[in-house]
Structures are given as structure tokens and as C-alpha cells.
Design goal:
CATH topology of the largest domain: Jelly Rolls
Shape: globular
Structural class: alpha+beta
Order of helices and strands: HHHHHEHHEEEEEEEEEE
Radius of gyration: 21 Å
Strand content: 25-35%
Number of helices: 7
CATH class of the largest domain: Mainly Beta
Length: 282
Amino acid sequence: MKAGKAAPEEMGALLQARDAWEAQNWRLPLTNQMPALHQASPFYFDWLAHPDDDAYWQHFPQASYEQTRVPALNLGGWFDIFLRATLANYQGMKQRGGSPVARKHTRLVIGPWSHEYFTGLFPDFSYGLQASADVLCYTTAPQEKPLEVIGPIELVLFVSSSALDTDFTGKLVDVFPDGRAELLTDGILRARYRGSLVTPELLEPNRVYELHLDLGATANVFLAGHRLRLEVSSSNSPRFDRNTNTGGVIAQEGEDSLIPATNRVFHDQQHPSHVLLPIIER
């Protein structure tokens, strides 16, 4: 395929790759994907070859708020995978925009949609994992009065692992009186990047570490009778790629490289694991 043009057989291969995308997400190693994907999206394999924040990523354009002299309208969704970047761009323009007009009049609009906006039911956003053996669930008592939470969510965990590298995930969930659980926001931390995306550092097995997970942001009122739930686990696939737990180059490792990790979360006086909520008092 060249210059955006494809022969009929190439287009057929691309359509086949598209239809098989969900199954491909479970195929390991990640670098061993359909040939059509190599042709259509070679940049994807460049990304896999650079899991650290190395010189490769510095070639991409960086935000230059000081050079933007007109106001910007930032539009995003609370379930958009690019929400963090939308919020960062808004804050960057408000703080560093290239003129007083740009800083004053830049606006932000965030709605209850994902990256591809559509109407109707959102079954993927309505679920609870409390029954799973590999998910820790912390659920409050029903709220006596509405609780308004607007802003970034941070999860602080004191953990240990038997592995050299592993993932920790967190989800903030709104539990309705009828038991329905709706996901609000989530996040993940690959332990090797706990200190820096530039310089990964493997774990010392069974040593306790303090980790800080960015769970994104939300705007939600937990109504009276609703409960807050925090779900903690070590995987959220296929939203995030699986960690082989070896400490090696994950994208190059196959299923035969997978090893189990025994992960522990501590929450005692010396290890106060907690979630930070931006509560709005009215």
C-alpha cells in the first residue's frame, strides 16, 4: 500500500485485520501481528519498540502554549481515552497561553461520552467486578446525602510483588441502590515506571513500595443511597496490554513467557493505602 492507495487484495487483508482486531489483542507476542497491520500501521510497531520515554518520542511535536495567541476550545468526554491530554491542554493554555486574551478566554467542555460519541445505552460502563477473586473491592456505606466529586483522582497503594515487574490498576465506581455498578474512571501503573517513564526500574521481589496511580478525572454526584467503590487489581486487559511479569520487553514475549505474580496491597497504620477524592462542598 502506497500513498494512501491499496490494491483490492490489500484492502481485503486490511478489512480482515479490522474484523479480527479483538482476537488480535489477545495474541502474543504483540509484535507478531497480521502482515496487513504491519503495512497499514507501521507506526504501531515503532511504538511497541519504544516502551520507555526515550529519544524516539522527542521527535513528536510538543505543546507550545506560549506561541498560541488566540483562545482555544477544548472538547472532551469523561470516558474519552484522551481526557488527560484534553485537561492538560486546557490548563496549559490558561497558565501559559501566548496572550492575555488566549489565557482569559480559553474554554473547556467535557460531556458524558467516550472518544466516539454516540447515544443510547452504555453497557460497557455498567459493571462490577466484586465477585472476581483477583480484584480487591472497597465499598463504602450508602451515602446519607449527595457527595459531589469533580477533578483528578489519585490512588496511593502500598504494595509488594513476587515479580520483577507487574501492573496495578484502580477503578472508581458508583454503586446504585439496586446494585448496579457504573465505572467512572480508571488508571494503571506499570511498576517499572513508578519513578520515571524515562528510566524504568525493576522491583525487588516482596519489598513494599509506595505507588501513586493516576486514575484520570471525573465529575459525579454520588446521590443519597449510592455507594462509592474502589476496585484494585493487577490487570485491565484489553484496555491496557498484559504484563508478562518477567521484567523483560513485554511486546516481544509470547504466552510461554507469562509468569504469575503474587501481589499484595497493604492498608495498615504503617502502610495507609488510600484514594484521594476532590470533594466539592456546596
